[in-house]
Design goal:
This is Dihydrolipoyl dehydrogenase. Belongs to the class-I pyridine nucleotide-disulfide oxidoreductase family. Its cofactor is FAD. It comes from Alginatibacterium sediminis. Its EC number is 1.8.1.4. With 485 residues, the protein is an alpha/beta fold. It folds into three domains: 130 residues, FAD/NAD(P)-binding domain (3-Layer(bba) Sandwich), CATH 3.50.50; 120 residues, FAD/NAD(P)-binding domain; 118 residues, Enolase-like, domain 1, CATH 3.30.390. It has 13 helices and 22 strands. The protein is globular, with a radius of gyration of 24 Å. The termini are far apart.
């Protein structure tokens, strides 16, 4: 690492060595050799260390156990699987470390003179305090990521309170976990742990399930998950306290009965907070939103201070790896240019939750469309239930439904919310169509094989097209086989 110096002057300083920061560094280097990457913690990405990759490792183990356990539905009697918790977590940690190693190899290739360890804090628009060093930069990229957020009162639980970061360091699976927050992290980890034999209860507030905003799709998700594990999306929790090194929770259950239950851990999955509160932003005349996060231009990543750019989880626009990488590239490119800012490529929104059934969202959400077009009745919804969808039923994954949204007049595809099998793959097809600004009719002209789960999209598109008063009337079922219209 670079030796601490009293003063360092560079063209571009990037604060944060995660996904967005590394992308920003690489992009800035295309324009200037004078770029400094600053990191206060460990280099490496949230995705590799404690996010998408280790969680998928845990989910993969859970899916394997679930398929084994439910094989009897196909007439294949394998019995109840034996879960070796130590072996499960050993593989999670080993593969996690392997993924992190790939990221660190990339970081190690950066010259030591261009890396600085330490927490950065603004002195003014162009000056940072980093440990004993003063860094003067013509332009600065903030890519400091985010961290789990939870009520301060939970700190009294001590080591019995965990966040997703902690789960992937476990050497053994616990007996019981109370998960607070049925969002992306809570649903993924809660279901995975449940399928690996851990007693799980997932508690939420206000009825929200995952990132969904369409009430019908959200209700389908809730029903599917409640059939698999305990989920109360609008829980009435009276007390949470530490009792004999366990977490004692007093709550009213789904049947309206008072319960008092002990858990090994409380897993806080109640959201994340952008890591900008310790940067000394109060010393700048920078515009902040109601959460204290810098407001940025969606296309250039520039803040209200001309020489400061913000990318990734630090701006809290869309906290996803592919989005952080895109934003980092745009921010770094513009910081490297200095002048003549360029609008970066903003891809169609796509998000997935790797539960069973999966959740996916593409383009505009139902809430966004309803806000924009609801008052004039300018959009329609096409729907498909996967309960009787041909291939889904063959595979016994026939749960959930999808809503696709189209604009009246233009026939343009606006977005989708899905809970169902292979939703991650369905979402990619829809995202490509959305980015190409295709109409519903054009999407129906695309090929669909039979029998595949993707035919469910065609069912929804046909209904949507009929509601938009475009093309032929809706076909109820395939004349050849009765399913997969």
């Amino acid at each position: 690492m670079a030796q601490k110096q009293p003063n360092i002057s560079v063209d571009v300083a990037v604060i944060g060595g995660g996904t967005a920061g590394l992308a920003a560094y690489r992009a800035a280097k295309q324009h200037s050799e004078s770029v400094l990457l600053i990191e206060g913690g460990e280099f490496g990405t949230t995705c590799a260390r404690v996010g998408c990759m280790p969680s998928k490792l845990l989910i993969a183990a859970a899916e394997n156990a679930h398929q084994y356990h439910h094989s009897a539905q196909f007439g294949v009697n394998l019995g109840k699987p034996k879960i070796d918790g130590k072996a499960v977590m050993q593989r999670v940690r080993s593969e996690r470390d392997r993924f992190v190693g790939f990221v660190l190899e990339s970081v190690d290739s950066i010259p030591s003179s261009e890396k600085l360890k330490g927490h950065a804090s603004f002195i003014d628009n162009n000056t940072l305090q980093v440990g004993d060093s003063i860094v003067n930069a013509k332009r600065i990229v903030i890519a400091t990521g985010s961290r789990p957020a939870f009520p301060a009162a939970w700190q009294s639980l001590g080591s019995r309170l965990v966040v997703n970061d902690d789960v992937f360091s476990w050497e053994e699976l616990p007996s019981s976990v109370a998960v607070f927050g049925p969002g992306v992290i809570g649903l993924e980890l809660g279901q995975a742990l449940s399928r690996l034999g851990v007693e799980i209860k997932v508690f939420g507030v206000g009825g929200q399930v995952g990132p969904l905003s369409d009430p019908t799709v959200m209700n389908a998700a809730k029903e599917a998950f409640q059939a698999d594990f305990y989920l109360d999306a609008d829980a009435k929790v009276e007390a949470i306290e530490l009792d004999n090194d366990q977490v004692r929770i007093s709550f009213t259950d789904l049947d309206g009965e008072p319960q008092h239950q002990h858990f090994d851990y409380l897993l806080a999955a109640t959201g994340r907070r952008a890591n900008v509160d310790r940067l000394g932003l109060d010393k700048l005349s920078i515009e902040l939103d109601e959460r204290g996060v810098p407001v940025v231009d969606h296309f250039t990543m520039q803040s209200s201070v001309d020489n400061i750019f913000v990318a990734g989880d630090a701006n809290n626009l869309i906290p996803l790896l592919h989005e952080a990488a895109d934003q980092g590239k745009i921010a770094g490119d513009n910081a490297g240019r200095g002048k003549d800012l360029r609008a970066g490529l903003r891809r169609s929104s796509i998000a997935a939750v790797f539960t069973d059934p999966q959740i996916a969202m593409v383009g505009e959400s139902y809430k966004q469309i309803e806000t924009r077009l609801g008052s004039c009745g300018c959009f329609e919804i096409g729907t498909v239930s996967f309960e009787n969808q041909g291939r889904s039923r063959v595979m016994l994954v026939n749960k959930g439904r999808a809503h696709l949204y189209g604009e009246q007049g233009t026939g343009r595809f606006l977005g989708a919310e899905i809970v169902g099998p292979n939703a991650e793959h369905l979402a990619h097809l829809l995202a490509w169509a959305h980015q190409q600004q295709m109409t519903v009719s054009q999407m129906l002209d695309m090929p669909f094989y039979h029998p595949v789960i993707e035919e469910g999209l065609r069912t929804a598109l046909r209904e949507l097209n009929a509601k938009l008063h475009l093309g032929p009337e809706m076909i109820d079922a395939c004349m050849e086989c009765g399913v997969g219209a």
